[in-house]
Fold each of these.
Amino acid sequence: MRVYVGIDDTDSKRSMCTTYVGAVALRRAESLGARRLDHPWLVRLNPNCPYKTRGNAAVCLPLEVDPSVFGDVWRAVIETVEELADLESGADPGVVAFGEDARPGLRRFYFRAVREIVELEEAMELVRTFAIAHWGYGEMRGLIGATAAAGAVKETLSTFELLAYRTREMWGKERLVDPESVKEMDRAYRGVTFDNYDYEKGEVRVTPHTPCPVLLGIRSVRADVLTGALTLLRVNEPIEFFEVYRTNQATDIHYVERQVQSVRPLESVVVRGLVAGRPRVIPGGHVLLEVSDGTGEITVAAYEPTGEFRRVVERLEVGDEVAVYGAVKPKPEGLTLNLEKLEVIRLRDVYAERAPRCQDCGRAMKSVGSGKGYRCKGCGRVDPNATKVRVRVEREVREGVYEVAVSARRHLVRPLWLQASSGSDACAV
Ligand SMILES: [Zn+2]
């Protein structure tokens, strides 16, 4: 029988990683006779979820299991979660198994868990109706992500990530990966792997900064290149094992199109409208501006970590037509959209008033006083009827799509080069 085992909320801010728990459980399940139907799935859920630990990732293990050994496989998975989950630090893990026939009934819940805040009771309803088995600890909040991961729509899982894990004695210590080798690997696999290195900030991106078991992760659009990419990295510590996951990272599926009036907090939205207030730089180097679409006005923020991206935001003018992509956060001053991506759809013509040029010699003229005309700075000619002229100012920004620095990019956001190379996004439901 085909079984989709969802696992979530095994980690805390302090330690562990659900992908590690899933990968260990997968190995134990295989030793009991379960076979992989696919790569394990690393499923990113709503990045704005207030309960998330870090990346809000859940795992699904798609398995072919003989019904006679399902009980053993299930127990092995639960034992793995009990053994590895950080239960003392507030993890509320959930594990659930669904059959193939239940998956269509989970589809809508998956998209909602990526785009909205869903309640535990909604997951419990699906678990009670469709699950083959389920297990939870504490408040069992993990059943939300576990159910969503098991219901993930495969067409949205269009990228891959190789995750290499550290041996236990290295957990919490500095990761020993040679940064130069990361750049070499990035050059060798450009156009296939992505987000390996932030050249704008000179920062390695394959290694996380958390005390979890993950040594490094390499993202790609193809699964078959990942082990080759790994061999190019000079890693000066043992690798316990690695696993290649199929993921919904870098797909933009978290965005929903919204008018300003219907924007809700903790969603990731796309709003099209006009720049309604001049961009302003606030202490810390953050850039804020207002965007209006006729139904309302929303504050849009490009924070300092977004890098050079802010220079584009800063150069927008009132009346420019834009599409802003980002997470909606409730702030004391109202809802704020934290920019992840910006499309400059149409730049308004901007004019400035300048002194006229002399009709005789072509040089600049200077006002001789209000309403008294202009005198040429070159030949001295006075023209009492000359007035200021309106000239179009060259804009310092171009129409197009802009993205934040690699190091500020969230897991679900599609990099621009990938968007360009693969046509439309995977957003269709
Ligand atoms: Zn002149």
Note: The pocket of zinc ion is lined by residues 358, 360-361, 363, 376, 378-379, 381 (CB under 6 Å).
Amino acid sequence: MSDQESENFWECKDLDEMSPAEWESLCDGCARCCMVKLEDEETASVDYTAVVCHLLDDHSCRCTRYLERHALVPDCVQLTPDNVLDFKWLPVSCAYRRIAEGRPLEPWHPLISKKPDSVHEAQISVQDKVVSELSVHENQLEDMIIKWVEY
Ligand code: SF4
Ligand code: SF4
């Protein structure tokens, strides 16, 4: 295996073969999974809203309580190699979904660009596009539905 191949672990390993550090680095930092979603109970279709979890820093797109997130936010999804494809609402851009589906990472992914901000520059992240759920009443969520997340 060449140095380039061993460096590009996402091209030669399945999700369940990645080390914890590799798994973490695969997240592109888009924070689309932290957006509040509305599910139609009859059709199970999901709409994304321009509203995000109260623990998200909407500029850095990072969780402010990452290590405690699952205890603090029961709805916070814990992705694992076995369940990635169960979440049909994951954005098509999500790096975990892409690798699970055998698709390559996009040029804007920080592992490819080597620049942590490239996910923001490419307008993939939620940076400056969303508001915290703390500032939105539940009754307003339907008015905040957006269509720019494809899943
Ligand atoms: S949608 Fe996927 S790549 Fe984006 S922040 Fe969530 S887990 Fe990471
Ligand atoms: S707890 Fe953190 S990782 Fe989970 S949805 Fe909220 S901001 Fe995102």
Note: The CA atoms of residues 56 and 63 lie 5 Å apart.
